[in-house]
Write a structure and sequence with these properties.
heterodimer, A: alpha/beta, four-stranded antiparallel sheet, 9 helices, globular, B: mainly alpha, 8 helices
């Protein structure tokens, strides 16, 4: 368990301040400001290319912003401002910050050279310094939670896509993250197993207070799990609000058009 | 002299000397140099991928330089410049380093074949770079490259007669000595070839078996 940090509960779990991200000449995010409160479940929606996944990747430090600042629990993530200059923080600091954040990927990204249990205990043992016995015990609990008891010694290649994604969820939870990033976690799955994976995530949302940032095309799931929906377009937040409002009576015409395209109504 | 005739007596008479050359030089150089090449090649590949730019560039230059010059020239160069070392040690080092440069290329391809998502997962789990290399990237990269590495070991094995250039009494030079003493070359050269074949063919089968065994299975 991570030690509780001495932070004002009002401090947002995630804060973007003037974040800009370019890939070459292509500006993906521009002057982006937003906050995610602790325990919030925020779903990012919007057309592809609107920068939703980039936001998750910035929080996970898989990408680096070209400008602006990202704060986790009020602490700068990768860059900070010193005397009006934007200064990169040391790798050690980033490593410490990363430990609070977990991510589940569209393509699972389990380690194929390890068994399921080895995947689950790798980081708890080698990053958090947990004893192997404790990590295995916790691994078993998590496998139980995602309905994969008995698969400890299986290799990922012998599992179905849905099973692999459940292991990936357990692997992320094994690190006890404060923030969980879900990047289109059901997009690579066959339709009939999507619901199994979503059920597990609903259960995680119900039984923990992990802050979640979700990119998904499963609008029903977004509605069930999230308490806030942000509509992105052209690298900016077009509008945001509670799921009910956004899904039933959005303010913006773009949002309405996007939703009717996705929901096929 | 030799002609097309065949005399088994020469086969039996020369066999002990050929086998001695095989076991004391050919095999020793192949095994020790393969280990050096496998380890050093991986070091080269990792340095090129993740060392600071000037170091990576220097390693790339050295690797290409060694790869693009003949091993015989390298053997002779080291033999005549570092006279303090005995020829066998020189042979082992030169073969090891030379083949390390080939294996570095193989490893590089293997490392590049590990999907980006694997690196991203190590970051998402806050793993250190060193741990990511050791526990995730190298095990996957090496599995992908095993057949190619094995083939280079066999190539190296077949290149060992170049050690004649620096006066090492390996199998083929022993065969030539026997031939010179008895004015008969046909049997000894064929025998040397057969011994190479008998050793490399099972080795290639062994490599194939190994490949299948360590493929990702349940």
């Amino acid at each position: 368990m991570p030690s509780p940090r001495e932070t004002d509960p009002a401090t947002p779990a995630i804060r973007f301040a003037g974040v800009e991200k370019r890939f070459g000449d292509n500006v993906v995010l521009q002057g982006l400001d937003f906050e995610v409160a602790r325990g919030d479940r925020v779903t990012l929606i919007g057309p592809s290319g609107s920068g939703k996944t980039t936001i998750l990747r910035l929080v996970m430090t898989l990408e680096e912003a070209n400008d602006g600042y990202i704060f986790i629990d009020g602490e700068p993530l990768t860059h900070t401002e010193v005397d009006g200059e934007r200064v990169q923080l040391k790798e050690h600091h980033r490593n410490e910050m990363r430990k609070r954040i977990g991510m589940v990927f569209q393509q699972f990204n389990l380690f194929p050279n390890m068994t399921v249990m080895e995947n689950l205990i790798e980081a708890p043992v080698h990053v958090l310094g947990m004893s192997k016995a404790d990590a295995i015990e916790r691994g078993r609990e998590l496998l139980d939670r995602v309905g994969l008891v008995g698969k400890e010694d299986a290799h990922p290649s012998s599992l179905s896509g849905g099973q692999q994604q459940r292991v990936a969820i357990a692997r992320a939870l094994a690190m006890d993250p404060e923030i969980l990033l879900l990047d289109e976690v059901t997009s690579a799955l066959d339709p009939e197993i999507v619901e199994d994976v979503l059920a597990i995530l609903r259960d995680v949302a119900r039984t923990t207070d992990i802050t979640m940032l979700i990119v998904t095309h499963e609008m029903q799931f977004a509605r069930d799990v999230s308490n806030r929906v942000m509509m992105f377009d052209g690298g900016r937040v077009l509008e945001e609000g509670d799921p009910e409002t956004i899904f039933t009576s959005p303010r913006e015409e773009r949002t309405r058009a996007f939703l009717s395209a996705v929901l096929g109504t | 002299m030799s002609g097309l005739s065949w005399n088994w007596q020469h086969v039996w008479d020369s066999l002990p000397s050929l086998l001695e050359g095989f076991f004391t030089v050919t095999l020793v150089v192949t095994v020790v140099s393969s280990i050096i090449a496998a380890v050093l090649g991986l070091v080269f590949a990792i340095l090129r991928r993740s060392a600071p730019a000037p170091i990576a560039a220097a390693v790339t230059f050295v690797v290409n330089f060694i790869r693009m010059t003949p091993i015989v020239v390298q053997l002779l160069f080291v033999y005549f410049t570092l006279v303090a070392l005995d020829p066998l040690t020189i042979g082992i080092i030169v073969f090891g380093v030379h083949y390390a440069t080939y294996m570095a290329e193989v490893y590089r391809a293997g490392i590049d074949s590990v999907p980006r998502g694997q690196w991203e997962a190590t970051t998402a789990l806050s793993m250190s770079r060193g741990r990511a290399w050791r526990a995730v990237i190298i095990p996957q990269a090496v599995r992908a490259t095993l057949p190619a590495l094995g083939n280079y070991v066999i190539s190296m094995f077949k290149d060992t007669p170049f050690l004649i250039a620096i006066t090492i009494p390996e199998m083929v030079s022993n065969a030539l000595d026997y031939g010179g003493d008895h004015f008969r070359y046909t049997e000894v050269i064929v025998l040397a070839g057969v011994i190479f074949l008998l050793a490399s063919y099972p080795t290639s089968l062994l490599i194939r078996r190994l490949e299948q065994r360590i493929a990702f299975t349940t």
